[in-house]
Amino acid sequence: MKGFIFAAGLLLGAACTTSVLHQSTRRADAPPLTVEASPERTARLIAAFDEIQAILEDPTFAEAIKAFDHQPLATSADESCRTTKASDVLAAMKTRLPSHVLGSRCSLLHPLSTAATTACVGSWINTRRIDRWEDATKEQRGTLINTLAHEMTHVLPEEGAVCSSSSDGAYTDEGHIECKGDQPQCNDAFLVSYVWGDLVECAYRVKHEGIPKAAFRECVMGLVNSGQVTRATLVPQFKNTSSECQSITPWKAVE
Ligand SMILES: [Zn+2]
Q1: Would you say the pTM of this structure is higher than 0.85?
Q2: What CATH number has the domain bearing residue 92?
Q3: What is the residue range of 45's domain?
């Protein structure tokens, strides 16, 4: 009986999914987005996506992230790793983000994963993460903003590539090893995807939480160093990587 109820629930969930084509009103150049989720979750995803588009368009954001351009970021953590900087990621986001799908996926089927993204195709976000938007605190909403901004880096195709379903992403987490408190090495803090999520989350919080503009840097360093480890002191770890990425050094602490 339980199995039947579970299956019926899944069917009901699927039946409630709508597909909505969304053109952001916050940034004229934003590519159209296809949102596949329940009507409630569609509204949450669109609200968060539009907040991110407004941030991409904001000249104060472009100015603020220049303070991080001295810190090389890694396009992946494996042998294909190259370095880039925050301002270049912004330029790529504004010019190369393709039309893609933004959907929800059931957390019962993917209990441990926050999201899954295929370059040029789309991102599917765990329903529990989407629903944090309803908690309505800026911190909770910022978590969804961070996830969407992170996943958007994975949607981007490689520079100069034409998008197809087999495209390679410009920024991946290949070779990524999660930071652990007892390990002296990690690479979360240096990957484009993680840093970009933190930069956009802090821009959102500066805008909505009333954090003074001067505290943007502190907010970013706080997120980069969040969790059980202080990543600023950790040594970047890459898998058989290019010498370019081996030269990445730990983040400097806030001055
Ligand atoms: Zn990722």
Answers
A1: yes
A2: 3.30.2010.30
A3: 16-246
